[in-house]
Amino acid sequence: MSAGTILTDDAEAVSVEDAEARSWRIDVRIGDALLDAIDSVHDLRAIVITSENPSLQRMLVDRARGRRIAVVMGCTDDTMRRRAVELRVDEWYRTTAPSEEVTWRIHAAIARATPSGAEVAKRVENVEYEEMLYDALTGLPTLPVMIERTRAPFKDRGELVVLYLNFVRYSKLEEIYGWEKLDGVLESTSAAVREFLDENKLRTTKMMVSFTNDDDFIFFHVPTEHARAATDREITDMTVRLQQHVGARLEAAHGEEIATLVDVYVGSAHVYYSPKIRLERLIYRGIREASNAAKGVEERERARRVADLRQTLRDRSVYVDYHPIVVAETGKVFGYESLARGVMRSLRSPEVMFEVAAQADLVWELSRLCRTRAIEAMPQHLTGDQLLFLNVDPHDFFDPELDSFDVEDPKCVVIEITERTAIKDYPKFREKLQKFRERGFRFAVDDAGSGYAGLGSIANLEPDFIKLDISLINSIDTNFIKQNLVETMVGFASQHGAKVIAEGVERSEELETVKRLGVHLVQGFFLHRPGQLGVRAASHTVGAPG
Length: 546
Known about the structure:
With 546 residues, this protein is of the alpha/beta class. The chain has three domains: 5-133, Rossmann fold (3-Layer(aba) Sandwich); 143-305, CATH 3.30.70.270; 316-522, TIM Barrel (Alpha-Beta Barrel). It is 46% helix and 18% strand. It has 20 helices and 17 strands. The chain has helices spanning 19-22, 32-40, 54-66, 78-87, 99-113, 118-133, 143-157, 170-177, 179-199, 232-254, 256-259, 279-315, 350-359, 363-376, 378-381, 426-438, 455-461, 470-473, 480-495, 508-516, and strands at residues 5-8, 25-28, 44-49, 70-75, 91-94, 159-168, 207-210, 217-221, 263-272, 318-327, 333-342, 387-392, 413-417, 442-448, 465-468, 499-502, 521-522. The strands form three sheets. An eight-stranded mixed barrel has the order 10-11-12-13-14-15-16-17, surrounded by five helices. Strands 2-1-3-4-5 form a five-stranded parallel beta sheet, with helices on both faces. A four-stranded antiparallel beta sheet has the order 7-8-6-9. The chain is flat, with a radius of gyration of 27 Å.
């Protein structure tokens, strides 16, 4: 790459870690001046921006794209990272990243944006190869890199311990909250694992890898000279502490809802070097053995949780969080959604609890208990004309006991259809719903815009309320496609006499955006967290007392 100008709003954002980078001329501009410079600087190679202004970010990216200028974004937090992905910048990095990574990101961005040619094609090929070697999200090296780094010490020591860290329900987390949330959780997870291993006795070997774009991690440990390898007992003990450490970090960063949804199972394998067998095969066999061991741990844990669920059903050990749904414009409490949770920590997450129930064929029994618990406490939570939103799976409508389900005033209850599975026979299902409508119950479609709860479901069920999935609301303030979808849904609902509820509002910017789009009702952690007394008024700003 020849010398050229790097345009930035922060001189410290541009690193000069190699000879080629030192030939760059750094031009610092702020605000609109940065935008104007895109057209006036003739030898411009890339733009490195750290501004948190969404409008400026979008204008800079659009104008730079028109000139085929590379854009790199320095992200201070998850919100900026999500914007970078949404805007499809050429590269992004955490502002806390080491200087060599920043330099590599700028090089990679320029390679992508430069017009085609033999030299550029080769550079792009190198960039793509480098991306295969390092996971862009976590920054961890991938397996090919780690095999090469391990080759010499493995041969010298003659043994290798492989740890396979299997994180369960990350796909479920992505399904519920969207990929932006999962990316943030993966970053927190990798940081927590590295932190733990650095402080553990295995810190002597800093060799940890991930599969690129995957959510499982592998750790190679070659004991140092004169040190014995960790025993199975020590690894088991370490696993317990690792689970606790990762759980605590996830809860601190993302809340208990996320932490209780994620489990980590660790399997290990001891591999001994043999010159007769190719080293790569030895390592891959060790990884498979460790992976199978992790799955064995998971199976034993699943059996234990089924036993916990049976005890929960016997003891009726389920409690209910009443999560407020408020009027978007005024902040007035419109009603409460009942969220059932197990008393045992292993069953604290509703998703986990019902997953275990499905495995044990106990869904109807658990649903009955959750409904009963929710109704029992209605008098203590509902006042005036407030409504109770009660989650019911479509399969529950074929439970003979549901027909006898009764409350003092059905008009106070909204049955929220939570589609964990597809509704296969809509005519028969609508007949079931009609009987409840005749008794005064109202209906809501949950998680609209995700999974089975699509437009067809809404049209078939004719709900009184449409609950927008959290993945639609997450970062909606920076995503214009989401805004258009929500605005369209609000218009559709208003024409058919239904109200739209935005789930998962976690930031003031999201709240202001859904209000502007005409959403009628909102709920989320920004307004109320489980166990929190009171509800934050919709007009409050972040940090205001609840």
